Structure formats: C-alpha cells, structure tokens
C-alpha cells in the first residue's frame, strides 16, 4: 500500500517563519555566516583531549549531565571562572555559569525569560541578525540605537530610555555586543560601558551582554566586560559567550553568566536534559592546557585574512566602498553608494558563485541598511578572498554601475 500523503496546510501554525530551502553546499566564494578558519581548528589537540577524558571519565556518560548537575560539566564551568576573571574582569562562581548549546540557546533562554508579545527591547541598530529575528518572532517592540566607532551611542540610548519612561514603558533589556561588535567590529571603551551601566541603573533596565567575539581582538587586549564592571554577584547584567569563534562553531558550546536567583529561573526553562556532554568534557580537557596558545595563533591568522580582505576591497572598489578596518573578529561591514540595494546584489552575486550577507539582515532600518553588506573573512582562503571580491566587484559594477574606477572596470 502506498504511503498516505497528508496535507499539512491546515495544521501548521500561522506565525511560522518561511520554510528553509534544501542545503546545496557552500558556494565557491562564501562570505556568509560565522564560519571560522578551518586550518585553525585544533584537531590533534581535541583528539588527544577526547582520548584522555574518555579514558578517565567516560562512564559518567551513563548519567545525564555527567553527575555535574543541570548547569553543565563542572570542570568546564571552573575553567570559565578562571578565564572570565583573567580576560574580562568577571568575578563569578561556577554556580553562576550555565553551559548552553551555543550562545544561540542562551539567547533563546533570555528571551523566553524576559520577552513577550508587546514587550520592548533596546538593541544596537547594526546587529546580529539572529537577535533581530528572535525579537520579531516574539512580537517585541524594537528600539534601535545607532552605533559609532565606540559602540552604542550613549546620548541616543539616554534619549530612548527617557522617551520610553515618559510613555510608562520599561524596556526588558539593553542588548549590546560591546567587544568586537557584530557586524561593525567596534570595541566599546570602558568609559562608555560605565556610562551605559549608569543609565541601566537609573532606569532599572538590565544589560544583556553578548561577548561571543571578545576572544578575537587582534591585539589580544579588551576592556572589562559589563558584567565585570558591575561587580561580583550583580543582577544588573546577563552575560553570554561562546566557544564557537575561539575553537569551532560546530561544537555548539556556549555559556551564560547570571547571578542567583535569576540563574535558577533560567535553568528552569532549559528543558533539553543538558547540552552536549561529550563536547563539554573534551572542551574542558583541551582548554585547560591549550586555550590561550590556540587563541593567540588564531588571532594572527584572522588578522592576516582581515588585511587581505581590506586590501582586496580597497583595490577592487576604491572609494565606492566605505568601511572601518577591523580590530578583531571575522567580519567586514561595508557601506556602498546609496543607490545600491544589497538584497539585489545578493541575488546577482549568488549566480556568480559569491555569497554575501545583505545589510537589511543585520540591521534595523531600511535607510541605514539598504546599501550595506557584511563579509565574513574567516573561512575562505586568502586566494578565495581576493578572487571572490574581484567577482563581487564585477557583479556590482554590472548591476549598479559601481565601482566607477578600479581594476574591474572594462572587464
């Protein structure tokens, strides 16, 4: 008997996002996503760590959460206590850390905890696309704050908070990516962080700090995190981080830092029986000995790729492309002439084998985002970066008449 074919049209929820298309592999020149440098994945170190920890503790996989409790593998949380203190000035305990399935699960938990339909969230105008999408799906009201070379604009934030207060609205959080902002790459100064902390305290609005790229400042130096500046045991800041950018995104390991009793509320929402325990065991074993040395080498490789991308864009686009040279991270945020619609450029470039992120997916506001695009430089090789940018410039010239000058004109 042939299988029955059901019609799900009348069964699906009305508020679902558009269906995904079938995966067809990466394009020849892939500048999208948060993929990292393949040659930098510490394969040998991870293999050795897996052998060592499985030989020593492998039988604890018979129990959910490895007998460490619902917050994740204790040695990994203890590593993070030391790391966060040394790198970000965060003074916390292992009980104030929750291991998550990537930082994205942390984002979901925070929104589930705080955001309902009609609630207000304050975010940076240029922003992680996943943060914007999550808020839209939650039917939240988004208040977007411009970002300058020092991060979130304090004057604009102060005005937004005052305006909301005048309307009787208390925002649920101020979401910021202060250290290597996505997509702009800015690093917020400590002075500005303290100003935003003061506004947060004045208005009773918590800060939701996304620190996923903070390990990737090319200098290796970063300001103290908001959570660290707020002090031990504070309940003013919720902090999330990730191993995706420092080790490997496919491991899907992130973490969330919050004080009690807020952490207890968050744990109650995490109903997945624990994030990948084997991955946590291997990460803890590897990171305790090798994390700092690995990240130092990764920064060097990423800086080189950033330099190659900047050189290629400058050579191919000339003054038609405006950008700030990255000081860290894996992205270049580019402004093209106003008449360029990067969503159309995305379609045309895809036909030529080049994948880009159009600005409207990574920002709030059509006027600001229409002519902007984000390029990820971490995963392509240096040769692919140069070739891909040349192809992209050709497409942009054919579709929009820019760049007006450069090596690509006349091809």
Please provide a brief summary of the model:
By secondary structure, the chain is of the alpha/beta class.
Could you describe the 3D structure shown?
By secondary structure, this protein is an alpha/beta fold. It is built from 12 helices and 14 strands. α5 (154-166) runs parallel beside α6 (190-203). The longest helix is centred in the C-terminal third of the chain and has 41 residues, at 277-317. Residues 406-411 have low confidence and may be disordered.
What general form does the structure show?
A: globular
Gross CATH architecture of the largest domain: 3-Layer(aba) Sandwich
Low-confidence stretches: 406-411
Instruction: Assign the CATH topology of the largest domain.
Output: Aspartate Aminotransferase, domain 2
Global mean pLDDT: 95
How many DSSP-defined strands? 14
Question: What about the largest sheet?
Answer: 7 strands, mixed
Q: Beta-sheet strand percentage? A: 5-15%
Number of domains: 2
Given the helix and strand composition, which structural class is it?
alpha/beta
